[in-house]
Every structure is written in structure tokens, then in C-alpha cells.
Amino acid sequence: MKTDAPTQMKVDLVVIGAGSAGLSAAAGAAMLGLDVVLFEKGEMGGDCLNSGCVPSKALLSAAKYAAAARESSTYGITTVEPVTHWPSVQQHIRKAIDTIAPVDSQERFEGLGVTVIREHAHFTNPNTVASKSVVVQARRIIIATGSVPAIPPIPGLDTVDYLTNETVFWTKSLPEHLLILGAGPIGMEMAQAFARLGSAVTVIEMDKALARSDRDHAEIAVAALRKEGVTILEKHKAVSVSQADGVFSLEVEDESARKTLTGSHLLVATGRKPVTDGLALQAGNVETDRQGILVTDKLRSVSNKRVWVLGDVAGKGQFTHLAGWHASVFVRRALFKQGSKSSSLPLPAVTYTSPEVAQLALTEAEARAEYGDSIEVSRFSFHENDRAIAEGKTEGECKLIIRKGKLVGASIVGEGAGDIIQLVTYAMSNGMKVQSLTNFISPYPTRTEVVKRAASAHFTDTVFGKPARTLVSLLQRIP
Questions:
Q1: Separation in Å, CA 280 to CA 8, 41, 125, 233, 469
Q2: Residues 362/424, Cβ–Cβ less than 8 Å
Q3: φ, ψ of residue 246 in degrees (nearest 5)
Q4: Where does the Pyridine nucleotide-disulphide oxidoreductase dimerisation domain lie (predicted)?
Q5: pLDDT tens-place string over residues 212-245
């Protein structure tokens, strides 16, 4: 039977992947008048919209209402124990996704002039990408295929019906007892959310929980989750897993003992890996290693200069906001010939537990390892912040990591930390000194005032020390 030959096309830009990085780059290029073809074999919007940031924050929002009901007596309000109606929670999650989806839709991008092809794409040579229906030759090619859950080689795991961030929101019923492998941001956020909604939750972590966050601040968040009833087993290794009659049996061990945990559901949250399978990268002369695609700090393939790699698959970090920055780097470098790099700006990261843990650039431990005793740490506690006191949310602090008057990192733990750290991010991104964080009027009472107070604390000895007092004493003699 005769079949139609694939359509042949020549364009300025091909983008593989319609997640945050791919969509932003495609939109920018199309709005600047370039011919753009966008390939996406799955859902438009990628992981963030469909199974990551949006559904997880919607779930966390629902869980906060349950927590607020339990805490209300502290504020003089009497309520009953909240009851979770899981289908309604799922409806809330779906509504959030559906409300945002039009921004990432095929129709919107076609309206911008992008040719959207909903098929799997792969390289056929260094400047050509093909799918079932088209063969596209391009001046530039972007790989923005994102990442997927990394599944550890635990005996028995491949035989059970485990959950990942792609499926945990759509379970038929609220888990009675949720076992979670991994205490990174995803694992800890889901642990608190499901515990607040009424599930028993046990988290198993080979290292320390929130290991990449500032240690002091991670421990505050871990303590908060434990106080809410989440069991967190640090320094525990999963040995094997099985499932029978709807019950998971997870064998774990630490340095001293081995034991078996049981639960109704198992969530695997042990990290993510870049998506490179099926791209025929060898045909595109795109080199890889065990971590993924080899790229420069300019986000170009080390072996094929016409190929750019953006987002999670670039191996520079797995954040939606970083993917958006990568798209900006591409537009600046490739289209405007400016000098942006993936590392041009400090990278913030937030774990949206309650309290939130926000990290910018280096942690205190990382800064000490790199700069030794030349760093200084300035802090201010939420316990001394009037807004936090008024609202009864005083757990946390702002920590600034300073070297020679400039910021090299920061961490904030507390209510709204992800919003508060943006002030520090702006200052550090624009090369401002710590003093700039003292030189503005902060509206009262706000939590963001902790940043100004932490920065001011750095100058306490300078402003109020003996030399300053001597100077003021001399100045007082002037009529």
C-alpha cells in the first residue's frame, strides 16, 4: 500500500519539547519573526503544568486549609477535625491545570506563528529532525525534552504499582498510609500535604532530609513535619519491596537494624533523570555522558554547535524558573548575540513545605568550603518579626552569607520564604552589596523586613561600635 512521503521543511529553528524551556524559546523566536517548528509527543506544558509545579502547589494549597482548621483553636476559633473529600481535592488540582493550560496550548502557539507537530521527533543528521509526518532542516535546533522520575534499582520495585509525581495526584482514593522513597523537595512536600489531608506518612531517605538545603534551615522544616505526624527515617536504605492484597511491604535498613514497613501506597521521589532516549542523538552528532547531554555554559552542545540544550535535560538544575532562564539565554545569545550564560545569575530554589525553605546560591557549608574563614553570616529570626508574631508563625530565620561586603548566598526558612528571598535574589543578581539591603523603607509589618534586619545586623559593630561612638562624641562638639 502506498503511503504519503513526509513533508520536507526548512526553518530557522526546531524545538523538541513543549515544556517551560521549549515553549519560552519557541514563543520568543516566533515573536521575533523566525520560522519555528515545535515538536511535542505528549502534553503541551510539560511536567510543570501537568505533573509538577502546578498540581503539587494546588495539592499543598488544599492541605494548608486542612492544617488551618486544626490550628484555628490557637487563634480563638473553634472548629471540628477537617474531613478530606479526595475527589474534590482532585477537582481543585484539575481546575488549576485547566486554568493555566491555554497559555501553553497548541492553539496559542500556532497563533504566534509556530508550527506545532504533536509527534515524537529524532535526529536524522546534525541539522535535521524528523517525525512520522515531517522532515525538518533547521539552522538551529533546541533540545528541551525535560526529565522524568529516576527509579532506583530496588529489588521488587519493578513488580509493584508504585506512584511517581506523574501519578500521585490521581490515585483512586486518599492513601491510608503513604510510604515515600526520598526526602528531597518533592518527597517532603508530598509528605506534608498528604499528612495534613489525613494520610499516615512515612518517608525513607538514604541521606539527610532536604540534603541540598542549608542544614540549619532544613532541620527546622524536618522538625515541623515530624511535629505534624510525618515519620522521617534518615540514613535508611530501601532493601526490597513487594505488594500483596493491596499492601506494600518495604524492607529498610540502617546501620544497626533491618525492618519492614507496610503501607497502602508507595511514592518514589528519588530524583529525576534527563530525557534523551529515542532522540537518535548519535545521528545528530550530539555527545552525551552518563548524566545526559554534554553542553557548555552557553547551553550549546559541545559537539554540534547548531544544537542548544535547555531546561532539565541540560543538566544545570531541575527547576521551571531555571528552564525559563535558559530560554532567555538562548534568545539573548543566539538571536541578539549577547553574552548571557546559564550561570550568569544566582539560582534560587524553594521547597514549599510549611515552613518554606528558600535557598539562593551557596549554603553556609558550601561557602565555608569554598572561601574558608573569609565569609561572614548574618541572621535575623522570625521570632523577632512583628508580622510573624501577630500571625503566630514565628518559626524560621533569614541567613545572609557574605564575603567582602557582597552576598555569596542566602537561605530563608519560614512562612513565605519563597517570596521573601526574591529581594535578596534581585540584589545578588545585580551585583549589589549587602548595604543595599539596608537602604530602603520596608513597609511595616511585613515578613520581608527580616531581610533588612539581617543585613543591618551585619553592620551593628560598624554603626554602634567604639569607633562610631567616639566619632559621634566628637561630632556633638560641633555647634
A1: 19, 15, 9, 41, 70
A2: no
A3: 80, 10
A4: 348-454
A5: 999 999 999 999 999 999 999 999 999 999 999 9
